[in-house]
Known about the structure:
Layout: H1 10-30, H2 47-52, H3 57-73, H4 82-107, H5 111-134, H6 153-165
Helix pairs in contact: 3-4, 4-5
Amino acid sequence: MSLSRASISSPAVLTCVAAVAVAGFLIGARSGFGSAAAISPFTICSSTTEAEFPAETPFLRENDAAMNKMMSGMVITPTGDVDRDFVSIMVPHHQGAIEMAEAVLRNGHNEQIRRLAQEVIVTQQQEIAAMRLAVGDPLPPSIPSPTQVVPSRGLLASALAFFRSTGVSQ
């Protein structure tokens, strides 16, 4: 049976892959492996995928990197402080969501998904800050949020053509 790109939605694929990654993580954790080395690399972007979907390769590579960084960051040595341990696990989880949303902003085309990615970035940054403050950790230095959507060349060219046609100067 051959599956085409149209037969499987991207959210369905990402949901399945995330479920498999979390299951692998939990199996590794229950097996007594407490290090990042116990987690196999997470890979959506294989050579087969690159060949079949070359335009999606940059996004998939960025997503793979974000997932691997997140999963490794979530492996902690317990401290005896449940609250601090929870924050130590959740911060890389939220940062992974931010990095995946940034990848969508760099590579995605659907304006609704891009707006959702912007919301993910803002809300996850807020939750990271709230968790760190709750356990008495200092906040990292403020940086600009990468949520601005750069208009595509097509949209910009259309806007310029419209202004030229109405006599509005550049």
